[in-house]
Design goal:
Largest sheet of chain A: 8 strands, mixed
CATH superfamily of the largest domain in chain A: Dihydrodipicolinate Reductase, domain 2
CATH class of the largest domain in chain A: Alpha Beta
Number of domains of chain A: 2
Distance between the termini of chain A: 36 Å
Strand content of chain A: 15-25%
Helix content of chain A: 25-40%
Number of helices of chain A: 12
Oligomer: homotetramer
CATH topology of the largest domain in chain A: Dihydrodipicolinate Reductase, domain 2
């Protein structure tokens, strides 16, 4: 099978390219640059990839002709502009960007401050949170955001089972700098970031509506979440520390049962009661590890989830969606060697 | 004035020693080692201090004879054992450890897992949270814990003014490694800590009862707090990200008014609405900077406070208590050059 | 093929285990603990490996019966004590420790400060610097040290081709903390290591005689090297910045020709003139990248080599030796996904 | 005394401003922005300084009228353009930039790739390496570069006493990111810098001619140095690891005697035989610590010097020059509290 990849030069794109190179069902990867008009040597742009391939100029007809599907690892706004021909043709797309994740055009335009895709296109898009749905047969799959994945996997068992006060959810999320991308900013200038913590987009992060939209699907009564993001002096990983009031009669057993039921058969999610994961135990892997505990004093449930933002939070989950779409085994191409130390 | 310092070798002790060396009202500092029986060269133990002084063997009579007051920068358990003669003699002590902070012996023994000081001694101890009380005339001052200071300064305006649901407080605190002390542990082994986040003592941190004790003084109706600590891959600083539900009728104006009223005349605490501090802006200083915001969607108030755990969170606040005790101007010896970058 | 692994709990051992798990020619890995007398659950000791295997008690007869070869990822001293039965039986061993690397017993005892292996055993050992020799048919292969590999790969083209003044070699080597192992030390206490550089074992590092021994094989006239090691505030990687005076008539062309000739067919070593590698471009890979330049002003040649100390500097090169020993293709099991960022 | 400061917004400028605020002989500091045409609020540009001052528009006449001297903490090129009126008027200037350090205009233009100052101005400039000369009575003092200071202090005793082969000097210098300034670059993008080492300006760093110029003053026979710079994943500090062949008959005693003679009365330089300094032991101070050792095997002398690039390597040495110029005691304003940990 041949696959196309638009946007190899970003962090998610590079990692996705590496995963695809090691995927046993992928024969060839064609790279495309959405703002290029002629071929470019990958070695010049990304010498560290040590590959001779060319990045081809973008041409939707050419992409559909030469590939069985295409990944977009582009920034918000690009697929809004470029995806129409693929959607019209029902050509399989996995989109790592946020463009088609929000079903409400108003919401997208408010949070992303960009024009939203057409209503009819949004209707055809599928939110591929792989641990809860299956992309098989879908043609336009939106790969969930990194913060959204981390948070939703932590909260799912509690929200789906109605164990918490739906208006009590607080999420204190922390992320390494690779989530902020390659663009040079003061926030990510080493001298500024090192030995520092910096909050950003407080109450304004565009993953908030994505998370709430999904929580409402699981429990209509969730009105909102309190969500904060802090930038860490490290490169890779997200931790979401989540807090929610247990409903009055909810016991430790109920909480444990919900997590066990939800994740005991999940390939990539591991939830453990009373043991909180470290960030690094998932670095370099597609795992999302979760620790949870009902505090008997406060009757709050603390749930801490960690994942590698470029793998389970981006390129890894994109491979999961790819595996679902084409009916490969879930772990195909994702048996990675962790960084571990 | 001569001052004694017991426990210069720990991180807080070293920093306190440096501050005292630069304090204009301190003529001489006598160093004591509580487990020493003969004098030791400071240069051998702490060459980086570049000082020729000796650390003298511990002797309470000698300490009282040669100093007008004494600081204890020792670990929990030491002053429980050693402070009696000073308390009996009403000799001025500033104790940086936790031994005398909790008024309840039961609580101390539960959280610290050590025998508590005598009831009568606890009655004479004074909790020196310098921004809210004054140590003038006190003889046994407990310098507040680093997490406790960070959290209490964040919550004080809201709790004192009854603006929040008292059972809704969630504190997600983060600390650099210097807070964990000099002892070698797996948690602070570089290869383990670097590029990592690690939770520790979840729901079990000994600063929890210290915080709740003080919150109850401000508002009896606060039943507990949900408090979590995460170890950061950096050396210095604490951030407390606090969340609490505003009471129904509370407005942004109420919140702002409370912070302005509380801190507008404070030398070391700066609170700003809608601007969240970075950790590094206080590193190397005695400031506690606070950002706060009422989220109109969730009606939660987010309050983020930062301080340098070894200064405002330990040795710096100890100097503040010293200044109060002896009626020096609040900023004496604390006009520090920040690390800034 | 079944392989044995003694010492999975150290950093090199864990990484080697991961590589073996992904090696297509390895059917089963038996783990052994050299100081164990009964089986131990791997999950308990190293939960982050997410494997159910047991670590078996050490028994040389059992190891030889159940495996076609064995890896030792133990610390210096262990194989001196334990390897005899394997050597006597000509059973294939790859030893990641330093015990059998030095051919001179006196030298080993001087630098390692431990009793050396028997002379007759040292004679049978083979120094497996994979880019220059082939372990095929060997039974006791010593996997080179991490600093030794980094330095030797940098210097080989110049020394083998007699392009430099043999007494002018200066090596300024830098290493991340994983090279210092899991043992808790002040040197690797986070608060001490962070934002710091620390020299250690200046002129006393045990890789010095290993490097000189090999350089002398290439050019008898090399008398010694000036070698310094500095500990970095990062986890993974070694950089060796090497300096040597070019002989008077040596030109840029000679230098380039030597590097091209030596490495143009090498799978894992890449040498580039005038472009100096970053440490991170090899993290997570088995590559050793080298940059070199003849400075026309000083007539010194600067050679900078980088590798991942746990891969090309330890477990990765051990896999290369394994591939050579059993005649698998050089890159088998080593097509790794780099950390890249 | 009133002093002017042009360029407070850079890292060196901010630190210098802090030092001046704490200097007992400075009554008032006037800030100037060389590219400003109207006053700017310091609080807006650098809120972390917590100062209400304004940055005034640049006007040389105004500067000379309202101050007794002026500091320039500007980037290369600025004082070439702006310093003329001050030089013509013999108005005291301390220039932290490189413009006037090189006495040869050709050399400046080659290494800095900018037009050099006028010959007559260069003649009046004074290279203020404070440990070896005295700026008293000088009017245009060039504050030495950070790498130059670190390297020259390491080499001075050996070069001045002709103990080494003058063509054998190798300097492997390492620097934190603050030396690279505030400008956003890929080299200092956190995701790129973190867990990485990056060489830059190999054989091309503009401090090379500055160092050689001074070494030649000490010993005309030094022809050049081999000098390499590596960027570290930390903020503050420079380490210069220097290597040089001892002359044949030179002994450990000779080396020690040279260092002792040179630095035993120096306020800020400490040299110790056989003990190599860590970077962090000088962070936040004006000290330069040096360790040295004659290797009996290689007959190379290893000299390792460390300093805080923004203090002894910039703003701190500028204060030393200021103290010399106005005959204040050497340590005035420089009794700093180290970061220590």
């Amino acid at each position: 099978m041949n696959v196309g990849l638009v946007g190899v030069t970003g962090y998610s794109g590079s990692v996705l390219y590496e995963l695809l190179l090691h995927h046993p069902n992928v024969d060839h990867i064609n790279l495309y640059g959405h703002s290029q008009t002629e071929a470019q040597s990958l070695e010049k742009v990304l010498p560290q990839l040590r590959r001779r391939d060319n990045i081809l100029p973008y041409d939707s007809a050419d992409i559909m002709k030469n590939n069985q599907m295409v990944f977009f690892a582009t920034s918000a706004g690009v697929t809004t502009e470029l995806a129409a021909p693929f959607i019209e043709a029902n050509f399989p797309v996995i989109d790592l960007a946020g463009d088609y994740r929000l079903k409400s055009r108003e919401s997208y335009e408010k949070w992303y401050k960009k024009p939203a895709p057409k209503e009819e296109y949004l209707k055809k898009s599928f939110y591929g949170l792989t641990d809860f749905v299956n992309s098989k047969g879908q043609t336009y799959v939106c790969n969930p955001g990194c913060y959204a994945t981390t948070t939703l996997l932590a909260l799912a068992p509690l929200v789906q089972n109605h164990l918490i006060d739906p208006s009590s959810i607080v999420v204190d999320a922390k992320s390494g700098t690779s989530g902020a991308g390659k663009k040079l900013t003061e926030l990510t200038h080493f001298t500024q970031t090192d030995e520092n913590l910096q909050l950003y987009k407080v109450n304004q992060h565009q993953h908030i509506p994505e998370i709430v939209q999904q929580l409402k699907i699981w429990d209509e009564s969730v009105p909102y979440i309190q969500f904060t993001t802090t930038l860490l002096p490290l490169t890779r990983g997200i931790m979401a520390s989540c807090y929610a009031k247990a409903k009055d009669n909810v016991t430790e057993d109920d909480v444990r049962a919900a997590f066990v039921r939800t994740y005991s058969d999940d390939t990539f999610v591991n939830a453990t009661e009373g043991v909180f994961p470290t960030l690094k135990q998932v670095t370099g892997t597609n795992f999302c590890d979760i620790g949870y505990q009902l505090n008997p004093v406060t009757h709050q449930i603390v749930i801490v989830s960690v994942l590698d933002n470029l793998l389970k939070g981006a390129a890894g989950q994109a491979i999961q969606n790819f595996n679902q779409m084409f009916d490969y085994a879930p772990e195909t191409g994702l048996d990675l060697i962790p960084v571990l130390l």
